[in-house]
Amino acid sequence: MASSSSSSRESSRSQVGSGEQQAPVPYRVGPSAYRPPVRCQCNQMAPCWTTSSDENPGRRYYRCRYGLTPGDCGFFRWIDRQATPYERPLLCDLRDAIRQMKREKAEEEQQMQLARRQLSDQMQVIQQLEKDKDELKKKMEQMELKQGKNGWLCLIYVVVVLLGLWFGLVYSAL
Ligand SMILES: [Zn+2]
Fold first, then answer.
1. Which one of 71, 84, 141, 166 is separated from 155 by 20 to 30 angstroms, measured CA to CA?
2. Are 10 and 66 part of one and the same domain?
3. Is residue 162 situated within a structural domain?
4. Is residue 57 domain-resident?
């Protein structure tokens, strides 16, 4: 299983620490969830990482937990064998397909969020318009009520004037 030594440190560059974030597939178990523990020169358990590089896609390795920091003792050891010339491009293609799908999913989620925000804005506009409509309706009703009263007043006025004229005519005829 363990096929290499700390001489191939360069293969672990940029994978340590950020390995979990960059992994195309989430880790099934944590980097320290293996037994018995493999210890580095610091006498500490070396975490198990998985590289997704072009040279070694999906290949696991142990690395000093202080990798790429001033406390790094340089410990590195492969766990899995090297991929065959057939397996390597296949694993790289799968990795790239997963990354592409993740990118597309992230873009779609962004578009969904934008659409939700726009919908929410439009709903607010519709609510405001409905409020305005209700207020206008109330004002219209009040105006109609006033006009109705004025109509009755006009009619009474005309009747009074006509009665006055009629009395006037009757008295002048006497
Ligand atoms: Zn160490």
1. 141
2. yes
3. no
4. yes
Q: How far is the CA of 38 from the centre of ligand 1 (A)?
A: 11
Q: Does the pLDDT of residue 116 top 90, yes or no?
A: yes
Domains in the chain, number: 2
- Stated pTM of the model: 0.59
Give the residue-averaged pLDDT of 71-94.
96
Residue 53 is part of which domain span? 1-82
151 CA distance to ligand 1 centroid (A)?
Answer: 99
Average pLDDT over residues 110-129: 97
Neighbours of 65 (CB within 10 A): 20
Residues 116 and 60 in one domain: no
| Ligand 1 ion: nearby residues, β-carbon < 5 Å | 40, 42, 64, 73, 75
Residue 100 within any structural domain of the chain: yes
Q: Is residue 156 part of a domain?
A: no
Which pLDDT band, with edges at 50, 70 and 90, does 167 fall under?
A: confident
